[in-house]
Amino acid sequence: MHILLIEDDLDLGRALQSALKVEGLTSEWLRRAVDAPLAVDPTTVDCVLLDLTLPDGSGFDLLARWRAQGEQVPIIVITARSAVEDRLAGLDGGADDFVVKPFATAELMSRIRAVLRRSARQASERWALGELVIEPRRHQAQRGGQALDLSPREFQLLLELAREPGAVVPKGVLAQRLDPLGEPVDFGAIEVHVSNLRRKIGAEAIRTVRGVGYLLQP
After folding, report:
1. 21 vs 1, 16, 117, 167, 208, CA distance in Å?
2. What's the pTM value of the predicted model, to 2 decimals?
3. Calpha distance 183→211 (Å, rounded)
4. End of a domain among 123, 157, 182?
5. Mean of the per-residue pLDDT values of the chain
6. Within 10 Å of residue 190's Cβ, how many Cβ atoms?
7. Which domain holds residue 171?
8. Contacts with 12 (C-beta within 8 Å, 6 or more apart), sequence order
9. 115 with 7, same domain?
10. How many separate domains does the chain show?
11. Tell me, what CATH number does 159's domain have?
């Protein structure tokens, strides 16, 4: 999963990127409001970590703009502002969580996992989809109680399909999500990974929607 980090502090930014990498999350780090995207693409960004005090603007303005445009991506505010008024402004303005600096990195990682679970409509660290159980943090999956031997790419593909079980995930979305920091994955490679994944979780578990993409049967 991919995190957009908007934070101007050099030491904190480096520390957060390192912590995200340990958690198996990729990230892009921006330090100015002007560099922030006009819209957050949910096909490439899973969560935004947003500082409120930036050298050229306010994180509140970015938050307000994205929510006014209907952006649904989870946003966690990280700030040194501890006043109740700031907390209320952030949460009422559409932030999914509000973390005051200084904070423990482990706590922030836990909060990221929590908003990602809510985004994926899962109540715990174990995503239960019928006989299929996925544990994103441990990079493990089971079917019918049996552990699945999945390659990193196969697990990543399964995770992306499981985010919206029963919904079609376009090939273009998968191509971008499987390598958010690089070139989109070739469609042919995606077909190979899907074929391998089907052999391991059952051919009936993934349905092809011709000309569009793939659907994980809930």
Report:
1. 10, 9, 19, 29, 32
2. 0.63
3. 21
4. 123
5. 87
6. 20
7. 127-216
8. 101
9. yes
10. 2
11. 1.10.10.10
